[in-house]
Amino acid sequence: MNANDIIIGTKLEIEIPEYIKSFPSQTSSYISQLLDVADAKNITIAAPMSEGRYKYLSAGLNIIVYFLNQRQELMHFNATVKEYKKSGHLETFDASITGDFTKIQRRMNYRLDTVLECKYVTVDDHPSTREKPEFKEISSNDFKSAFTKNISGSGLCLIMDNSIDSGMMSDISVDLEGMGQIRVLAQVIRSTSVENKKHEVGMNFVYISPQDSSTLTKFIFQKQRLMLKNNLLSKK
């Protein structure tokens, strides 16, 4: 893949590694747009913006560019700013692509290792063949606490005090750390004992609403981006 494969007008997110290293607590990500493609390695982008203000990019500055391709896959590449231009009210920057195009993993079966607080209750009266089950009203006292070991768009692994038999169903609420809660119906596919008398229970989602699925996907993307940022910080 090269610059010619990106559609003119595609929204871009610009990240500046130099700023991440120097000012880790400040904004280092800016919104832009692809305005022109000169050739496979050279592009023109709109002046990045953050909080309604343009961001000036000096010549020679290294940047990371994120975008969604035509398959809605999250991609990124490294580039170097070449030149600033202004035409009327339009401010632009020419940039030269210096690295390969890389896809950030976002498949439904990508499992993000993260610890999230959960509440669950077994509900063995829900058949797994139902496409859109109705969540029942359940007393808060009936829910038990657990936390995730990992989570994906298609399932999760919980660490809990009690074991659940394979094939059993659970109604689970997951706290996505500031992005709200999602509620899923999941079926146990495995359960094993681990240290400290805990149990590791792997589950596949039987039902998750489109809205909660979208929220979960955004959460996973956000965590992936944070990991990339932390990797940059560790290399300074």
TrEMBL record:
One Pfam family it belongs to: PilZ
Top-level taxonomy: Bacteria, Bacillati, Bacillota, Clostridia, Eubacteriales
Boundaries of every PilZ domain copy: 145-222
Single GO term (MF): cyclic-di-GMP binding
UniProt organism field: Ruminiclostridium papyrosolvens C7
Gene3D superfamilies registered for this protein in UniProt: predicted glycosyltransferase like domains
Domain Type III secretion system flagellar brake protein YcgR PilZN: from-to ranges: 8-86
InterPro entries attached to this UniProt entry: PilZ_domain, T3SS_YcgR_PilZN
Protein name stated in the entry: Pilus biosynthesis protein PilZ
Coiled coil: none
